[in-house]
Write a structure and sequence with these properties.
Helix content is about 60%, strand content about 10%. The chain is an alpha/beta fold. The longest helix has about 35 residues.
Length: about 725
């Protein structure tokens, strides 16, 4: 009943003639069909969600927040509350138009009368819901009698010739198809009113679809019949100039007045009852902390009196600043936003193939929901492009605020299912795509242990990844599952909280293995997200003699499994004793020691990605090479300069002619450099001691040093 009463409200009696007089029969039917197409598609979506989710108080807001999440439910709930609050003023203004026509002497007192009516409805709304229900039943009876009075009168005066002359449009000055559509659209918006009282229904999952379709179907037939009867029984001129023209052909004109009065008052009261419940539901979910005071309810049905007071204030402000034709398009835009997001919610649920989405209502498909969402968006753009863009920006801002402030909820939403579906589809597509050096991205497995104690290593990995790849933090716990499972569980929780607190864009894994090296080997072989397998393993250098043998075994194993190896030494020196999270490295100097394409291309690319971080955008790269002759120096200067130019990077080339040992030159040139990239030669079996003799002296003399061994064939010039 609430849905039917709101639909058959002010527009059908006060603006139906005006709409049809402007649009004519053909375009008028187009307006009715288009508006009802949106309402029918939205009704399908609402029915699907309502029969899948246990519906409680809050109606449409509740459905959206529990399906799409609070990020969508928050903005649309706020918009829906405002739209229904504005609708109260819309219906009251319609009521006073009729009252003044009956008693013209009241015209100077229109605003005070509207304010008094608003106060009266406020008092009714703030009482128990049973009062409103009893009043609405008698309003429905009066409304039906009024409609019958017009129908009988129009049938008796119907003429085919009049209908033929009213076939085409004749828009008044300043009006067009879409403006008239915007004036008419509030006539169909009441079909969600019943949902706002979902908390008071015994079986909402059954009552909502049945009541919604009955209201939409019956009123759709009434609008089609009335449009034909209006245009076949009234000439064009009165339709354009007389808002009460339907009264002139009614068999009992007073019944039309009573019908308009009952329709406007019932619709206003229905909105007065529905809007506060939406605001109360928003407050109970604590979506916007500043609305928390409106969560309180009174009496056995938890009547939202505080929210009703705010609804009253919004309606009063609109009454003091608007008229019917200016408020109607505002109401239209609000409801189009609401219906668009409702359809989008159902599209996301169904398209995401979430197993928990099992609505009892089967007459729907995600294509229909998507069509409804697109239809609402297009209608908004055609009505007022600037207002539509502004509305979308407003929703986006509220979404952004809610997404960053709302706490975790105890219910699931459709986003995770939708994201899962998209990720799965794209991973399967990537499986078929051949690898090309041009599309290489760093997919790093960082052997961080407990990242809380090795945050500097994590930050170095993040800088080298530069926001272009995927990082996974890994911790290997030596032992058996029987002994270490509880430790693993605690570590997962601890690392997850650490990542969340520091807002790190990384994944993480904790693995139980018989030994550290077997754990690293397992991760290098098996860790992946579909086709997204780590191509690089990053770890720290060890200065502990007893661990060096294991360290060398690990990097040898990583190479055997076809992964790039990155070893970082003295990463903590970058931060000068500060917390890595507080460090800003704007003027960092990075040295890349070039000895050929094999390791050089990867080192240069990692250095470039490092300088693309917001914290390091002023960083400089030096590309250095050592040669022993003047001729080789000239050749390499040209070669490396061309390499930098072709790679579209910024770096300073320095070729050093020297006969000293390679390690001595590196130490002398890079002693004061912040970060030094050096190629890493993985030792063969038996070459471990020589390996340490080469690299340990260099690492002892330099600050942060990054050793890089590349197995990928990269070309920075692509």
């Amino acid at each position: 009943m609430p849905s039917f009463l709101t639909i058959m409200g002010v527009i059908v009696f006060l603006r139906m003639g005006f709409v049809m007089g402007n649009a004519g029969l053909i375009q008028g039917l187009g307006i009715i069909l288009l508006a009802h197409a949106i309402s029918i598609l939205t009704s399908l979506s609402v029915s699907a969600i309502a029969t899948n989710t246990k519906v409680k108080g809050g109606g449409v807001y509740y459905l959206i927040s529990r399906s799409l999440g609070l990020e969508y439910g928050g903005p649309i709930g706020l918009i829906l509350f405002l739209s229904q609050s504005v609708s109260v003023a819309f219906y009251i203004i319609g009521f006073t138009e009729v009252l003044v026509s009956l008693a013209p002497f009241l015209e100077p007192y229109v605003i005070p009368i509207e304010c008094l009516v608003c106060v009266g409805l406020f008092l009714l709304a703030i009482m128990e819901l049973d009062w409103a229900a009893k009043i609405q039943f008698w309003i429905l009876i009066i409304l039906i009698i009024g409609l019958l009075s017009f129908a009988i009168g129009s049938v008796l005066t119907f003429q085919k010739a009049t209908l033929m002359t009213n076939l085409g449009p004749r828009y008044a000055n300043g009006y067009s198809f879409w403006i008239v559509f915007a004036i008419f659209f509030p006539a169909i918006t009441g079909f969600t009113q019943g949902i706002n009282f979902s908390g008071d229904l015994k079986k909402p999952e059954r009552s909502i679809p049945l009541g919604t379709f009955l209201a939409v179907g019956i009123t759709f037939v009434i609008y089609l019949l009335f449009s034909i009867l209006v245009l076949g029984s009234i000439d064009r001129e009165p339709l354009l100039t007389n808002y009460l023209v339907m009264k002139d052909i009614s068999i009992v004109p007073l019944l039309i007045d009573l019908g308009i009065i009952s329709a406007t008052l019932s619709s206003a009261l229905t909105s007065f009852l529905g809007a506060p419940r939406i605001l109360q539901a928003l407050a109970l979910d604590n979506v916007f902390p500043f609305l928390k005071t409106f969560a309180k309810g009174y009496g056995p049905s938890s009547t939202p009196r505080r929210a009703t007071i705010l609804t009253f204030i919004v309606a009063l402000v609109c009454i003091l600043n608007g008229n019917l034709n200016t408020i109607a398009p505002i109401v239209t835009m609000f409801f189009l936003m609401t219906y668009g997001l409702m359809n989008y919610a159902t599209f996301v649920e169904d398209f995401g193939n979430t197993p928990s989405f099992r609505p009892r209502f089967r007459i729907f498909h995600w294509r229909l929901s998507l069509a409804g969402a697109i239809g609402c968006l297009l209608a908004m753009l055609f009505i007022n492009t600037l207002a539509a863009v502004g509305a979308l920006i407003f929703i986006s801002i509220i979404y952004w605020i809610v997404d960053r402030t709302v706490k975790e909820t105890s219910w699931g939403d459709a986003k995770r299912g939708y994201y899962f579906s998209r990720v799965k589809d794209n991973l399967l597509k990537m499986r078929l795509e051949p690898f090309h050096a041009k599309t290489w991205r760093p997919q790093m497995l960082i052997m961080s242990g407990r990242p809380q104690s090795r945050f500097a290593l994590v930050k170095v990995g993040m800088w080298m990844e530069g926001g272009r790849g995927i990082l996974t933090l890994a911790n290997v716990i030596a032992g058996t599952p029987e002994e270490r499972m509880s430790i693993r569980k605690n570590e997962l929780s601890s690392i997850g909280e650490f990542i969340k607190t520091n807002k790190l864009p990384v994944f993480y894994e904790v693995l139980i293995a018989p030994s550290y090296i077997s754990g690293v080997e397992s991760l290098a072989q098996c860790h992946s997200i579909g086709t997204l397998k780590p191509n690089t393993v990053l770890m720290g250098w060890t200065d502990q003699k007893e661990k060096k043998e294991t360290f060398i075994d690990v990097i040898q194993s990583i190479e055997r499994f076809g992964k790039n190896v990155i070893v970082v030494d003295e990463e903590q020196e970058l931060f000068n004793g500060k917390d890595p999270d507080e460090s800003v490295l704007k003027d960092i100097l990075i040295d890349v020691w070039w000895r050929g394409d094999k390791n050089g291309s990867l080192m240069l690319l990692l250095a470039y990605l490092w300088t693309q971080n917001p914290e390091c955008r002023k960083g400089q790269i030096r590309l250095l090479r050592i040669v022993d002759t003047e001729e080789a120096k000239r050749e390499n200067e040209k070669h490396l300069a061309k390499l930098i130019e072709d790679s579209r990077m910024e770096a300073r080339v320095e070729v050093i002619q020297s006969t000293e040992s390679w390690s001595q030159v590196v130490i002398s040139q890079s002693r004061d450099t912040d970060v030094v990239f050096i190629g890493l030669a993985i030792p063969k079996e038996g070459g471990e001691e020589e390996f340490l003799k080469i690299y340990q002296p260099i690492l002892d003399q330099l600050s942060t040093t990054i050793l890089v061994h590349s197995v990928d064939k990269l070309d920075v010039q692509t």
